[in-house]
Design a protein that fits this description.
The chain has 269 residues and is α+β, with helices and mostly antiparallel strands. It is built from 7 helices and 10 strands.
Length: 269
């Protein structure tokens, strides 16, 4: 499932290539991917200008000049691609937005969705989300106070969207590795030094994910050579049996809080 770096990567590319353009036509091939009857959805989206794109946690919000907001969550398997009728992934598209000179394909929205909402409805959807870890307002003191009250594993805490927004299975393991902490450690049992280490690791790893374009393998558009590069730079995630990049101990995989987790049993404590 795409996490904060992947969705932020999409946002940055879309801001450059799509914002300011008008949606000339809309095609919906799977009605369950949207929240309105297909004719009503098309009627409200077609002809509107895309004025801004925002990210919150693992969501994107496409803001239209009508005041409508297209709220996207890709969930598991969702992808997007900017192309045209001659440059189109050989995949089933659930929704296609055609602009003046390109098309935006929404692919793999079997579990994901693209909902047309008002500003107030979008705000309601985000009420339970935790803080954005890359926002300037996300400070160590606030994180420290919240983490001291968490009795779950670091794995379950980091992927809890109510505790902190945008982190999932992949980056939670990378963050624990960076902080030299085992993902099965318990939040309220960490020392103040360990909590600080985890806080800084969150920002380091998420920014690293952004630098390398996240881990989604399919490029966002023709000529995109950045997206997916993080797969080449992962420390531990999906590296079972490989040597730890820090101490050369073999990386292992375990189920922690019902989620697959990868870590080094030697230099993570």
């Amino acid at each position: 499932m795409p996490e904060l770096p992947e969705m932020e990567n999409y946002k940055r590319i879309f801001e450059k290539k799509l914002v300011g353009k008008t949606i000339q036509s809309v095609e919906v091939t799977r009605e369950k991917s949207i929240n309105k009857a297909v004719p009503a959805f098309i009627d409200e989206v077609k002809g509107r200008k895309l004025v801004a794109i925002e990210r919150r946690a693992k969501h994107l919000v496409f803001k239209l000049d009508s005041g409508g907001h297209l709220l996207l969550h890709l969930m598991l398997g969702g992808l997007m691609y900017i192309g045209n009728e001659h440059d189109s992934p050989d995949r089933t598209k659930q929704v296609t937005l055609t602009f003046d000179d390109c098309q935006l394909f929404f692919i793999g929205l079997r579990l994901g969705y693209l909902h047309l909402l008002t500003c107030q409805e979008v705000e309601q959807e985000f009420l339970d989300l935790g803080p954005e870890p890359l926002d300037p307002g996300f400070q160590l003191s606030k994180f420290d106070e919240r983490l001291k009250k968490k009795r779950g594993t670091l794995k379950s805490t980091l992927v809890n969207q109510k505790f902190i927004a945008g982190i999932g299975n992949h980056y939670s393991d990378e963050i624990c590795f960076e902080a030299k902490l085992l993902p099965m450690r318990i939040g309220d049992e960490l020392s103040s030094r360990e909590r600080a280490s985890l806080f800084h690791a969150i920002q380091t790893i998420l920014n690293r994910g952004l630098t390398y374009g996240g881990y989604i393998e399919m490029p966002v558009c023709k000529g995109d050579e950045l997206t997916g590069k993080y797969n080449e730079y992962c420390y531990v995630y999906d590296r079972e049996g490989e040597p730890c990049p820090r101490c050369k101990t073999t990386i292992i995989r375990e189920e922690i809080s019902s989620k697959k987790s990868f870590f080094c049993p030697q230099c993570q404590i």
